[in-house]
Design goal:
Layout (H helix, E strand, L loop, with lengths): L2 E5 L2 E3 L5 E8 L7 E7 L6 E6 L6 E3 L7 E6 L4 E6 L8 E8 L18 E2 L3 E5 L2
Parallel strand pairs: 2-11
Antiparallel strand pairs: 1-3, 3-8, 4-5, 4-9, 5-6, 7-8, 9-10, 9-11
Length: 129
């Protein structure tokens, strides 16, 4: 059974930085597409950033471009999200997601929750002065 455990959430002032990490177990991490989603209070969960199994393809939502960086370490079965220049609108519960099926995904498929078959429990990020 796939398990994803997030860490690194917390509270930060606007303009600050946080680094989220997700540790995976129970599947072949190195073959999985990984992503971060978030859900703000009263809103639907939305895609933030994704990375292909090799790390060769990285995709960001417009809200994350230029501020967030997603990386992975297949040797440690971890995926990380470095978030800089945080804004109050980044406040949300952040979820790590895995697509364990082999093969690439393209375009809008990155954004679809249905394309991921394992989820972490989420970690809270609060950006406030």
């Amino acid at each position: 059974q796939v398990q994803l455990v997030e860490s690194g959430g917390g509270s930060v002032q606007p303009g600050g930085s946080l680094r989220l990490s997700c540790t995976a177990s129970g599947h072949t991490f190195s073959r999985s597409t990984m992503a971060w989603f978030r859900q703000a209070p009263g809103k639907e969960r939305e895609f933030v950033s994704g990375i292909s199994w090799s790390g060769g393809t990285v995709t960001h939502a417009e809200s994350a471009k230029g501020r967030f960086t997603i990386t992975r370490d297949n040797a440690k079965s971890t995926v990380s999200l470095q978030m800089n220049s945080l804004k109050p609108e980044d406040t949300a519960v952040y979820y790590c997601a895995a697509r364990t099926a082999a093969g690439e995904i393209y375009g809008r498929a990155w954004y679809g929750e249905v394309n991921y078959d394992a989820w972490g429990q989420g970690t809270q990020v609060t950006v406030s002065s």
